Fold this sequence. Notes:
Strand content: 15-25%
Strand order of the largest sheet: 11-16-15-14-12-13
Helix content: 25-40%
Structural class: alpha/beta
CATH architecture of the domain at 387-599: 3-Layer(aba) Sandwich
Number of helices: 24
Amino acid sequence: xxxxxxxxxxxxxxxxxxxxxxxxxxxxxxxxxxxxxxxxxxxxxxxxxxxxxxxxxxxxxxxxxxxxxxxxxxxxxxxxxxxxxxxxxxxxxxxxxxxxxxxxxxxxxxxxxxxxxxxxxxxxxxxxxxxxxxxxxxxxxxxxxxxxxxxxxxxxxxxxxxxxxxxxxxxxxxxxxxxxxxxxxxxxxxxxxxxxxxxxxxxxxxxxxxxxxxxxxxxxxxxxxxxxxxxxxxxxxxxxxxxxxxxxxxxxxxxxxxxxxxxxxxxxxxxxxxxxxxxxxxxxxxxxxxxxxxxxxxxxxxxxxxxxxxxxxxxxxxxxxxxxxxxxxxxxxxxxxxxxxxxxxxxxxxxxxxxxxxxxxxxxxxxxxxxxxxxxxxxxxxxxxxxxxxxxxxxxxxxxxxxxxxxxxxxxxxxxxxxxxxxxxxxxxxxxxxxxxxxxxxxxxxxxxxxxxxxxxxxxxxxxxxxxxxxxxxxxxxxxxxxxxxxxxxxxxxxxxxxxxxxxxxxxxxxxxxxxxxxxxxxxxxxxxxxxxxxxxxxxxxxxxxxxxxxxxxxxxxxxxxxxxxxxxxxxxxxxxxxxxxxxxxxxxxxxxxxxxxxxxxxxxxxxxxxxxxxxxxxxxxxxxxxxxxxxxxxxxxxxxxxxxxxxxxxxxxxxxxxxxxxxxxxxxxxxxxxxxxxxxxxxxxxxxxxxxxxxxxxxxxxxxxxxxxxxxxxxxxxxxxxxxxxxxxxxxxxxxxxxxxxxxxxxxxxxxxxxxxxxxx
Length: 762
């Protein structure tokens, strides 16, 4: 009877008035009626999110505490449970055995694909292709919802300028504009463009981690963050805001503190900014044990921090069980109010309503879709294409790439034959046996006329403990029982027998990602020694670099003829790498983060501000200027950098006017020519500099980009429209303003190689 009651109410919107305001009114009436029947314990239960223990499906209700809590109405949702049959079993307990039959929401870390895994998010950003990023999220949503999942903890909108922080792999790079475009595309891919209701193949997004998680001190995960509010708004907040404006249904609070208050209990952040300033109307969930962890931050005991989190606007507690264990007593003692509990409960119930769970609790459990829509040939083809777009060609001396078919190619390195590492970090639903190894992918794409030979060459690194820590989560690469010298000698022999060497080196997938901070960003020692030995053979060497972050490659740039950064490309990475190496696909990726020359430069990013003593365009050390004694100010590879197998030339930039008013605009046009012999794709980038402001302004800021396909020998005119909105910034009073004065507009192939013109805003 409970199930029929809820379904009847849930279908009212479908039967009687169907969209917009009518749907919202029907939702309000339904939730009013439901909350009127709920006890305070059941309301608190809607604020409790639990991880699924391994035996949850097979456990009996009477002896399994999670299942008991579901029956008691003390659980709102479960995450990291996979499969329609498993989810249906747990949902049935909630719907048929709890007093009110309120359905559960089922979530998962669907970060860059489901079983069809796409490149890591940093690599997706390197495509500079919002349509491709949206397609990847759309496929991920279709696959996950076919398997019972209706909520993903993605996208991660954390901008980071410190590649020591391992979670740059899961993020959007160093630029707020590019990052905002990417997270907006992800939200639309997961949810569609109508946040008030979801189709059965759409899932609710959760933008994370709000806020500033990527700015942790020293790049150490979970560490303190401290910055001015002006910097927050001008440099870090835009991607989060873009995800909210795109309709993300939920937001996850970050682990770090903001202005001395942990984000999970920061009312200024979760209410004043997120809700009052940006208009967010979904619910906020803590990160994993985020409520409990505030005790270690030192702001109170469990009851105190739980009450502070609720009052700040954190609606749901992930896995701490802090709300369900403390709120009844806190309510009795007056620490919190029933109104605050009701407000949080309503937000969670609204999300379930919009997901359609009251109408049909099993709507995301479709065995037919589960059989036919996951890891399909079509999805894998899309993943392969997008992976190839994400690779960044860093160097190609004497056009060593693309490789010619025929002859012998030596594939060397500890990452050349590891399939489990191909998908990259945070690929929890991936079948790690499904991807091809790089050796297999090269053999498939090269064809029978090309001989592929292989040698491991080294372990990941000499330090066994470091290697073990960097290959967790099912990504182990067993150490070779031979000595370092035996492996190295074999690799050199194999290299000398070949026409060209492909060195598959870099980070294993778990050397970047959560809790994988590094102080040394070079290729690990054993692999670096292998690379030096391969170069010393005199054979042409192509470095295929696996990386989840910007790395320090100064020696490699000076000594290796060709470097292709392939990040971690997903389940179809091996074939995609081969597609690019053999020239079936021309590389078009561009760096979303600057690559430093050494760790001592960090943070090094393109949109910095000038000091009062800038070095300017001068090279070498200059006394009493802002520079280093031992290294240049510039990165090794700048933001937006990436080569191609063809060449592009930019004509002179033309502005439609040199003046713009508050209701006007300026058209910027530049002719881009493909002067090489291959068709190619160029990412044309637009930057703007506000030359004089009421506060100091960056030397340049990305404000637009276009991916343009240009056939060999042809030219296209690329145009951008500059509007006053693109000139706005937050002043010292946090007012969003555009100030009159001179602006430089720059267009080019990366942040360092641009041409410039000037206009006046009046």
